[in-house]
Amino acid sequence: MVRSGLLAVVSWIIAFAVAFGLASLAHADETSATDKLRILYSTRFTFTDDGLPLVTVEIMSGRKDVKLRAKNGIAVRPDGQGGSTIESDGDQWTITAEDTKPAVIQDWTVVETLGPDDTTGITAAIARWKERGFEARTFEIGTVFGTGGEVIDTRETRIAIDPVAAGKGPARAAEHAKRYGVATAVHQELVRRPSGTIVARNGTATVRNPSVLWFVPRRATDTIGVSDVPTNAGGSQMDTGTEDRRYWGAVYVTLDHDGTLVAANAVSEDKLLAGLVPAEMYPDAPEAALEAQAIAARTELLQKIGRRNLTDPFLLCSTQQCQVYAGAGKEDARATRAIEKTRGMVLLRDGGGMVDIRYSASCGGHTEDNDAIWGGEADPSLRGKQDTAKGGASRVTDANLSAFLTEDPHEAWCGHGKLAKRNFRWTEKLDASDLTTRVSVEYPEIGRIKNLVAKQRGSSGRIMTLAIEGDKKTVEVTGDLHIRRLLGGLKSTLFSITREDGVFLLRGAGFGHGVGMCQTGAIGMAEAGKPHAEILGHYYRGTHLHRLY
Predict the structure, then answer these.
(1) Angle at the Cα of 390 (from 385 to 395), degrees rounded to 5?
(2) Is the pTM of this model over 0.85?
């Protein structure tokens, strides 16, 4: 199976090399335009001539036009490298679309997930659901590649049933979950890609091409500027403005699901990480902390490829759902050195495969179990533990929560150091009347709020289920992010609750979900002289570092 998998990867690498110009080919490009468009929607990726992964990342979507510029001019390549190159005077292009047709997408309910080589299990699952009246389909997600003497396989096979129109999948999946008592999810299938003509104009020339156009700076050392990029692309969803951004590598413009335009960046991993890492951790953090963050971000990047954005013409989005990416110009010299020093280094499970990397700003003294925050199966690499040198796994409960919240901050890695005071402990006061107004938007039947009760806590003390008692009805709210948002945007769900007159007093700890690496704790460990390997080993159990390339 490994040999056949590697042969498949090699074939994809050749195809990508032709389309992206990553190989020096002596003969003309014979890849059809249809094949090149199909490659954009594939879950595979390849390597640059320098041996680094090439990643395609969304810049912005849903646009009527896209405006590009470069200081020394832009070359247009209708079919990517290997086809014709069009150059003209002027350094700006405006791209629009003509005669567009939207994509056709349908939602499937995922009822089982198995390993890609589990043929017996897959056959049995299909038969099981056929007995229940469904023609089940299999969908393979993830990717496989071999490099540095290691085969990385993130694939899984989804058993899916009952296709419905796009948007109706969540409700249908919930119905099947309730009826059959199984965990369900939604898998989107791209039945037909959007179609149309991409038109680029720069005042002296017009270029038309079916479905996609590629743009590269005339000078390889230049960047391409993209105008009016929404600031919530690669940032907070609260931002609603736009700004001009620059990007290394190539930019291509193609069609979104509804026939509007998508701009995406094909960029090498090092350039991508150089824009990511300073956005994830303070660039003035100690070297070892930046190195740990670089390795974590690289592992996360490679682990997500082929598992998200399955109906999109790019591998990763640029928002917090994937990894925050705002293009060139966001680099910091210290973070870039950390990326270079850890080139190709990822975190692997001792039993094989890449770690499902998670991290948050501050765990508040105790990290959390992955299943407590997001449900699903318990991940042995993501178990909650005390964020101390001892690293014990004792739980924070209602009985010891008060003592935990008042303990000496120097006991925790995230409790000492120059950044610790920002999020280690906090207090919020919620006016009962204001809280009633806020909560009643989602739960109008609750009435006037009388009390808040933590019904279930995770190993770190974070609230998994919160009962909100009203004078008309009590509702139970689950989900870390849901609880935080409902109560007005709390830093975390690790808090105690007391009521004083008409005010709920919340005494809390940490900032974020607390799963995986505590970034403030990583800084604290680095300040204490701990190397990046020890930092990562502290936060991810049963793992080891491996240099892939």
Answers:
(1) 30
(2) no
